Amino acid sequence: MSGRCKNIQEPEVQQLKRHNSSLPVFSEHGVRMCCRLRCLVKQLDRGEASVAELKKSLEYAASVFESLYMEESRRLADPEDELSDIQSDSVPVEVRDWLASTFTRQRGLVVRRNEDKPRFRSIVHVVQAGIFVERMYRRTSHNACLSYPPNAIAVLKHADTWCFDVFALNDASGDHALKFVFYELLTRYDVINHFKVPVSALLSFVDSLEVGYSKHRNPYHNLVHAADVTQTIHYLLLKTGMVHWLTELEIFAIIFAAAIHDYEHTGTTNNFHIQTRSHEALLYNDRAVLENHHVSAAYRLLQEDDMNMLSNLSRDDWRELRNLVVEMVLATDMSCHFQQIKAMKNYLQQPESIDKPKALSLLLHTADISHPAKRWELHHRWTASLLEEFFRQGDKEAELGLPFSPLCDRKSTMVAQSQIGFIDFIVEPTFTVLTEMIEKIVTPLIEEASQAAVNQSSSVSRTEASGSEGKPSSKKSGGSEVSCSLTTVDLHSFKGTWNQEIQKNREKWKAQAKGVEYLEDNDKKEQNQEQNQENQQQNQQQNQENHDDSQNTELERMKTEEDGADEVETVKQDQQHQLDRSKSPGGFLQAFDLHTAELVTADSLEQ
Ligand SMILES: [Zn+2]
């Protein structure tokens, strides 16, 4: 810094410091940068500044802004951070807790859990040892409460696989897929024992859940979908090593949330509720209407003594479980998708560890839209189910004189493009961000476990050398079995699995879309005069091009910008205009707007 500015620097520094004393981010460096830049302006006025000095000052300014930006992003990503400025020295703990419970989303959760709990727990053994160990266990504890049909046992042997056939389980269990998946997983993760869950209450609760899921006879949002999402959560926890990062309570919470996440779904979208001014829309003021209902109605079941499977949880556990469940289920509102993905990407840029509720929410959201990443037979069946559900909503809309929601008109069949779009713009990016998140969380755990395994083997060698029996502990941290279970986690293969299925499904949809176009062309050749046919083809091609262009442009924009609600809103509006204009049913985005991301298309399903 040039000496000429020294005389004006100090008073300005003091002045700026006074003004910015409440901004810890804008500290010493920021103040100095301002002075330096002002000084430089004066030098430039006088024609005294050299290029070198200008460059140096600008570089300094850039570095300060960068760190300011990083700090600010971190603060934005962590709403609680506002409270961290209030130091316990100046404010009593009780007051701080009151502030936290009143002005942050941590309502009522005063007790903070110790984040440094042991990661390697006995339950990991229970789960990873597999179904047979568990079955022995169940026989001795609460066998009398739920007997498994032999066929259901056979299907459940594949519960740890990505393409588990939940439809087969539902058939084998007499339409009780949810009951068996829920019970099976709570047993395998040792939740029932750990939280002293009364099994009779658990079974009454899940029976009522199944009744609620069947209330509206939905082709898609039914108990099989709930079972599917719950089993997918299990796969994600187990195969990616995420189970090692979570506490028993967090595992309980995500399995519970998955099981209830669409409870009493009406088979219609949030937008339909809002448009028809339904009881639920009025009750929840048009905000996350269905999601609010799912979690609220499920918790109402727990109010009944005979269904209160959470009766033995401590007050703190109950409160924490509820916070997590509410957050996760509300985050399945698809209108949160872009904000959720954007926030997670932001988290991944930060050096800090990832917020548990946000990580859990992303897991559940991904599981909820995962069927396009499963093998074709499963994906295709879900597709057909969801389309039928949409069409039924369309029938209702026609009856009520409302315009069709996207993809809800039975006569509209050209939807392959929208399905491909759904995969490209929603499903694949979600899986990508989820995988990055998991890598960030699990990689350090794997390294830690590898180190522990090395230490363990050297200590075992010493034990063996001394002649005593090296009995492996099933509970202790650093035990060789546990280390092995983490070191065998293969994130690369996880990524390969979902990626491969997505690619295959996308290709199948593309092929079908082409096939449909081909068939349509042939029909027209037979039915029309040559001239008519040419006209039609031209029109069709033109429509298709217009549609593709406009949709892809908007989607591309959305994908690159992903800039929160305003952008998404603009895209939605634009797309609505396109839809009105071209009557194109390729509206995956609109359907997404209708808070139904499990969007699919099935050009040829009906054919
Ligand atoms: Zn769902």
Automatic annotation (TrEMBL):
It catalyses: 3',5'-cyclic GMP + H2O = GMP + H(+); a nucleoside 3',5'-cyclic phosphate + H2O = a nucleoside 5'-phosphate + H(+); 3',5'-cyclic AMP + H2O = AMP + H(+). GO terms for biological process: signal transduction. Keywords: cAMP, cGMP, Hydrolase, Metal-binding. Zn(2+) 2 binds at residue 262. Residues 452-482, 522-588 are annotated as: Disordered. Binds 2 divalent metal cations per subunit. Site 1 may preferentially bind zinc ions, while site 2 has a preference for magnesium and/or manganese ions. Zn(2+) 1 binds at residues 225, 261-262, 368. Residues 545-562, 569-583 have a biased composition (Basic and acidic residues). Gene3D superfamilies: 3'5'-cyclic nucleotide phosphodiesterase, catalytic domain. It holds the Pfam family PDEase_I_N. Residues 144-516 form the PDEase domain. Residues 529-544 have a biased composition (Low complexity). InterPro entries: HD/PDEase_dom, PDE1_N, PDEase, PDEase_catalytic_dom, PDEase_catalytic_dom_sf, PDEase_CS. The active site is at 221 (proton donor). Belongs to the cyclic nucleotide phosphodiesterase family. PDE1 subfamily. This is Phosphodiesterase. It comes from Salarias fasciatus (Jewelled blenny).
